[in-house]
Amino acid sequence: MKILLTGSTGYIGKRLIPVLVEAGHEVICCVRDPPKRFNPPESLAKSITVLQLDLLDQASLEHIPKDIDGAYYLVHSMSSDGDYKSLEETSAKNFRNALKNTNVNHVVYLSGIVNETELSKHLSSRKNVEIELAKGDYNFTALRAGIIIGSGSASFEIIRDLVEKLPIMITPKWLNTKCQPIGISDVMAFLSKSMFNPPETYNENFDIGGPDVLTYKEMLLNFGKARNLKRRIYTVPVMTPKLSSYWLYFVTSTSYKLASSLVHSMKVEVVCRDNRINTILGITPLSYNEALKRAFSKIENNEILSSWKDAYSSSGLNFNISEFIQVPSFGCFKDSRTKAIENREASINKIWAIGGNTGWYYGTWLWKIRGYMDKLFGGVGLRRGRTNPATINVGDSIDFWRVLYADKEEGRLLLFAEMKLPGEAWLEFKVVDNKLTQTATFRPLGLAGRLYWYSVLPFHGFIFKGMLKALAE
């Protein structure tokens, strides 16, 4: 089937593309500015078509292929400038009218849970878009979700910012509002399985959520438990929506416009009416704690990768799993350095010999001190050495690192730290176009993690610089 995907550059859209390709669909990705905003992995790019269009520009919508079978509407303007409610309504109308000239049979829209009589501006806009899209000459399905739990989602990262930065929180009273969070992997399942699933999902709207109904306060406290962080939260009735928005803006990494929209939405309960869609599609959603565990996998999107790689390996597609293994970036500290190399093979051979008896090429004595400190606090230290002195495979140990990805021909080695740390750390070596890029990434856990990063930062300057120089020579 040929499927049109709007919102291809968004959080949900990016994750849905490979799921649709895996299911055998031909995907048309709609993007406003392809060169700047859309850079799909090379192996996946061969299975999709990129279409440049703007939902506010009716002329550009004329380029939508006539022979599409289905479409996903994943466009939201919550944090944009101006009157986003008006913009969203116009976009929905333009999209609906443009589809009159196609053979589209089914449209699926991801909305928000809108069961209360009084809605925030944000949720009211979502409902209005749903009403406009439902007027089209096609079968229509609206999936209404609450808080989405997944590494990189706005809601999840705000929760993470709050819990990991603040041991004690004085919070607005809306933290006692109830919601029904859902894991990102379950959102993908509902979206993909709803398409072309007659007659149960046609011309219906469904609430999708996990099994747990929690207050935002309970979500924060459970998050703290999952990260082994003791947190105390006190709610006060004196914070106005404006003060609450500024509170979120200054404490977390969100923009003020997004914080303001979220605050108004968080005063409204977002709890599912029922879970009949679970039975229709045969989906058992993860609990909140299970979704948190998935979100903090060693590698972002790990839960999706596990299902993709086997399907792709038997599909005949030229799929490169490396392009989907990305180290987390949101809320992380990075030390990334690049240096030109004269002999690609020699540099890669040095990388593949790193650790163990070879050492770390520069400041090895400092690495040894770090190993002794690790053993002192009950860690593995450097005593493990290498699993194999000549080769590197996924799952091998290299001193106090674990190999997550290794492809010598590609020139990429990705390691995960198993030493005692107030956070998580990755070390990556990648050779591309006769350039070696060495990246150390650290995702801090609470205030201790941030203090740790800044305390070791002075040593990074010469350790990582010296190691890169030795590997590139």
TrEMBL record:
Coiled coil: none
Source domain of life: Bacteria
One Gene Ontology term of the molecular function aspect: protein-containing complex binding
Pfam families (UniProt xref): DUF2867, NAD_binding_10
Domain NAD(P)-binding: 7-125
PANTHER family, sorted: NADH DEHYDROGENASE [UBIQUINONE] 1 ALPHA SUBCOMPLEX SUBUNIT 9, MITOCHONDRIAL, NADH-UBIQUINONE OXIDOREDUCTASE 39 KDA SUBUNIT-RELATED
Protein name from the UniProt record: Putative nucleoside-diphosphate-sugar epimerase
Species of provenance: Algibacter lectus
